[in-house]
Amino acid sequence: MNHLTPVTVVGAGPAGSECAWQLAKRGIPVRLIDMKPAKMTPAHTSPYFSELVCSNSLRSDELANAVGLLKAEMRALGSLFLESADVNRVPAGGALAVDRVGFARYITNKLTSRDNIEIVSEEVTAIPEGEVVIASGPLSSDTIADRIQMLCGQEGLHFYDAVAPIVTLESVDMSSAFFASRYDKGTADYVNCPMDKDEYLAFVSELAKAKEAPIHGFDDGAVFEGCMPVEVMARRGVDTLRYGPLKPVGLVDPRTGRENYAVVQLRKDNADGTLYNLVGFQTHLTFGEQKRVFSMIPALKDAQFMRYGVMHRNTFLNSPRLLDRYYRLKSDSRISFAGQMTGVEGYVESAASGMLVGIETAARILGLPPADFPQETAIGALAQYISSGSVGDFQPMNINFGLITPLGYRVKGKRNKNAEISARSLRWIGNMIEERKGELFS
Fold first, then answer.
1. Tens digits of per-residue pLDDT, 112-148?
2. Are residues 156 and 171 in the same domain?
3. In a domain? residue 20
4. Are 136 and 188 found together in one domain?
5. How many CA atoms lie within 13 A of 312 on its CB side?
6. CATH number (domain holding residue 173)
7. Residue at 440 is within a domain
């Protein structure tokens, strides 16, 4: 296979790792460059590829949910990201959550064992020559971010993202907490930490005025709505958290038989079940303030924090002006982008973009027709969203059924409609795999 054009993939996060895998298994030689472990960002703690630096949840695994459909498509297409997630799954009700260390280690071992993937551990300081996929992610180093800015002109944008704290389960006061999943969906996988009205009001008051860590250029307006720091939510109104991550709906306290005024949920963060993260508690408070304020939650009064929340810069492109439906740079088709910097939001969406780039780039190098994933599929709908010239104020987006082509006929009930959309998409994926088996798909 040495006669084939090699592809350089910059960045081994969810998008870069998936892209490299899709290229390599189609016989394309890959040079995968990642600056870890020689250089780490404040949010990274592991030397492994595809590290999940924020939540360990990959969200719903049900076909009535758009991200559940996206996962089903990726599984059908042979995703390494989903293969690892399924192997390293931890209980999380109806969601797919993973042991983050085991998940990243599995992907790293798979990639390093491929003979046609060359792993290079260094910081990229210039756009490589030849075929290249830039998947350096929202935590791109300043140097490569500057090069991307030069390459794209003044089209670069940015927002800020935040990471939630992690506590040990043994330090949680279970006399003030209970295990349950919302609406008793799935198994009772979440630790629920209730607060009464007075406790909640006191907590919100302190949270809203707590001291933030200094971050150059940060302001509330630059925060992406999908990953809002908990203190920013507190400042938006006294009940904002009760209608957000602290909503008590569907969580009946077994001690009283009633719903509480507010509930903080903890989700398992490792397979052993010794570590739990505070769901929805992304923050950029100082570490001392996190300890002080979060300890006001009754069940966490003596909590041992194994990691405090941190704030980091996320960078993304004005992709509709810059990229086509294959995530290729319109001004230079040898360069593709993948991952969150393209405007897809979320781990699964990032990996899906890397998958599409890997498949379509392999097809082009092999002289085959493109797969041309249509908007009837979730993976294709994401590509259409980031490349659509009709998008006005472009912002990062999670997959949702609103991005997917409607059925064209009425179906009674939202879940029934979503199920039919999912069935249509998976039929298309299955037919394409069958039609192009032995050519583009194994």
1. 999 999 999 998 888 999 999 999 887 677 788 788 8
2. no
3. yes
4. no
5. 19
6. 2.40.30
7. no
Flag whether 29 is in a domain. Answer: yes
HSE at residue 126, side-chain half, CA atoms within 13 A, is 3
Specify the long-range contacts of residues 36-42, CB closer than 8 Å, at least 24 apart: 36/12, 36/121, 37/121, 38/121, 38/122, 38/123, 39/123, 39/141, 41/139, 41/141, 41/312, 42/310, 42/312
In this structure, are 106 and 192 located in the same domain? no
Joined together, the tokens standing for residue 50 give: 């595809």
Which residues constitute the domain of residue 295? 166-309
**Measured at the alpha carbon of residue 6, what is the angle toward residues 2 and 12, in degrees to the nearest 5?**
130
Give the tens place of pLDDT for each residue, 284-295. 899 999 999 999
Which amino acid, residue 418? Answer: N
What's the farthest any 2 CA atoms get from each other in the chain?
70
pTM: 0.75
pLDDT tens-digit series, residues 146-164:
888 888 876 555 656 667 8
Pick the last residue of a domain from 274, 309, 344.
309
DSSP labels, 164-227: --EEEGGGS-GGG-EEE-GGG-SS--EEEEEE-HHHHHHHHHHHHHPPBPP-TT--GGGB-GGG
E strand spans, 100-180: 117-121, 131-134, 156-162, 166-168, 178-180
**Domain ends where: 309, 331, 347?**
309
